[in-house]
Amino acid sequence: MMKKALVLVDFQNDFIDGSLGTKEAQAIIPNVIEKLSQYSKENRLATQDTHFEDYLTTQEGKNLPVTHCQNGTFGWEIRKEAQVGFAKIFEKTTFGSRTLAEFIRDENYDEVELVGICTDICVVSNALLIKAYAPEVKISVDASCCAGVSPEKHLAALETMRSCQIEITNA
């Protein structure tokens, strides 16, 4: 039997309508909630961008000096409507999660679908890490359930993923 997972990437308050929120991120909420309903809890995984008080001294913080996703804050929490239960949530302090990629490889998934925020930063980073760690896993990204920093960067990230043999749906 095929083993397929949905990965919800950084669907957190700060990226939706908080310190780094966008109207595009707000617009995908219904699509993401519908997508989550298509998978059972044991087939849903999530990532959670997680920063601490030293964030502004990190390389990321120096390049993006906007405090966000501080561990334990409201902005760090996964959007309430999307708190539907997950088999595993991977807290990460950087764009991609090597632990997520290794988990997908080690758990022998056949297929993985990614949705979430930001297409051009964390979605693309996680998709490419999964591709590197589990090259035989079929990876897809539902474009209608993703939002980038800007519409242009969203489209550019989708093109980058297409070039790396990641299937893009609903573009």
From TrEMBL:
Pathway participation: Cofactor biosynthesis; nicotinate biosynthesis; nicotinate from nicotinamide: step 1/1
Stretches assigned to the Isochorismatase-like domain? 5-169
Protein name in the entry: nicotinamidase
Q: Which InterPro entries match?
A: Isochorismatase-like_dom (IPR000868), Isochorismatase-like_sf (IPR036380), Isochorismatase_Nicotinamidase (IPR052347)
SUPFAM superfamilies (alphabetical): Isochorismatase-like hydrolases (SSF52499)
Q: Which Pfam families match?
A: Isochorismatase
Q: In the record, what terms sit under GO molecular function?
A: metal ion binding; nicotinamidase activity
Organism from which the protein derives: Lactococcus lactis subsp. lactis bv. diacetylactis
Q: Please tell me which top-level EC class this enzyme sits in.
A: hydrolase
Please name the GO terms of the biological process aspect recorded for this protein, alphabetically: pyridine nucleotide biosynthetic process
List the Gene3D superfamilies. Answer: Isochorismatase-like (3.40.50.850)
- Could you tell me the keywords of this UniProt record? Hydrolase, Metal-binding, Pyridine nucleotide biosynthesis
Where does the record place a coiled coil? none
| Entry EC number(s) | 3.5.1.19
Describe the family membership recorded for this protein in Swiss-Prot or TrEMBL: Belongs to the isochorismatase family.
Give me the segments passing through the membrane: none
